[in-house]
Amino acid sequence: MPNALQIAQVRQTQFSAGLLSTVVDENPLFSAFDFRTVNGLSFLSLALVRRPDPAGFVPLGEGFESSEAAFELRKFDCYRLGGLVKTEVDSENLWNQENSLLRWEWFDIQTEEKFKESIFNLEKQMILGLVNDANGFPGAKDLTPFQSANVITMAENGAKYKYARAVLNAGGTTSDTGSSVYAFRFGEKECQGIIGNGASSAEFLQIDEPTEQFLAPKASEPTKLSLHKAAQMRGYVGMTCTGSNELVEGQLLPTQYGIRRITNLTAEAGKSLSDLHMTKVSRMFGTGKSPSLYAMSERSGEQLAASRAPVATHFNMGGGDAAAQQANQYPDPPMTWGRLNTPIVYVSPDVIVDTDVIEA
Q1: What is the CA radius of gyration of the chain?
Q2: For residues 144 and 125, what is the distance between their CA atoms, to the nearest angstrom?
Q3: Distances (CA, A) of 144 to 30, 118, 129, 151
Q4: Beta strand 191-195 with 35-37: parallel, antiparallel or unpaired?
Q5: For residue 339, is pLDDT > 70?
Q6: Which of 13, 24, 109, 331 is the most buried (most CB within 10 A)?
């Protein structure tokens, strides 16, 4: 399935494609995420409520029983994302005169930086959801709540609960040192980002023609004005996950099969991320289903690497106690995991932190 940059390139929306290409490295979660487009400001998503009865063995002369899967068609909204790009005209003119050979002018540079920060905030929303901004859409943490009916322990497996539970408890107990690892399974009936508002022909983020107006350069001195160039940037974005959304009325616990999460990862022995945790969470999607992407912190990546056999052992000869002079060199944090080489992205420490409270 395509990501946002690929959609922009296919649609030949040059503004979005140009800006999206600048955030590939700095916003790895957004850049790797699966997206689809809708023409309006809302979208439909299917939730599988009940599977159909299987086809059984029937003797000749007897009829067949009919059954069908039960789906709930749920409607969700896209949320408006945007802000103002502004530059002081005198400063902009001075920069452009002094740097006339550069490809981008001052207003273009400001637009790029505004776009980068907007995409970074969108990544935070995709993970932290309503904690990041209550005016936005629920994120992966909202859709994987730590509730007794939604959690398995390291001594259990997903099959025990027919793969309906979404959270694996790593068991760490050190206060305010927890972290989570997120596993996403992409697809139209799994997890996807949504680009709304006429996206079949429009830009991911639209920007109006700049206008000039007198504004206060310093908010603390509102009576002192100077001429500014300003333009409004906006777009509409949402996220769907197997027809689940915490805002659905009466739905206390979302049952979804597109996101899984490991929580309570700490630096304690046996509670830091290892291949055992990764194997268990990858199998929580169900038989024959594998995640499409993992998102984690840098600390979790280092823990995962350190859980493996060292690639070299170094000895400092003549330094006294031999045991104390030995150092193991471990592999670098992996960029993929498992036999399918599923990508791993390491997101900003402001998105997935290592200082979460212990969930219990």
Answers
A1: 25
A2: 14
A3: 19, 24, 11, 9
A4: parallel
A5: yes
A6: 13
Task: Sort residue 196 into left (φ over 0), alpha (ψ -120 to 50) or beta.
Answer: beta
Residue 138 has pLDDT above 80, yes or no: yes
Instruction: Enter the tokens of residue 310.
Output: 């060292």
Between 64 and 216, the more confident residue is 216
**Residue 35 CA neighbour count, 13 Å, CB half:** 24
Q: How far apart are CA 203 and CA 11, in angstroms?
A: 9
Residues 6+ apart with CB under 8 A from 139: 124, 125, 126, 127, 128, 129, 130, 131, 132, 239
| Identity of the residue numbered 229 | K
d(C-alpha 215, C-alpha 232), whole Å:
15
Q: What confidence score (pLDDT) does residue 10 get?
A: 46
Reported pTM: 0.83
- Find the angle CA(327)-CA(339)-CA(346) to the nearest 5 degrees: 60
How many Cβ atoms are within 10 Å of 203's Cβ, its own excluded?
A: 22
Residue type at 2 in one-letter notation: P
Handedness of CA 104, 109, 113, 119 (dihedral sign): negative
Q: Which residue has the tokens 């006294």?
A: 320
Q: Which residues are CB-neighbours of 335 under 8 A, at least 6 positions away?
A: 343, 344
Lowest mean pLDDT among 17-21, 189-193, 215-219: 17-21
Residue 258 tokens read as 């597109």
Please check whether residue 32 is in contact with residue 293, taking contact to mean a CB–CB distance below 8 angstroms.
Answer: yes
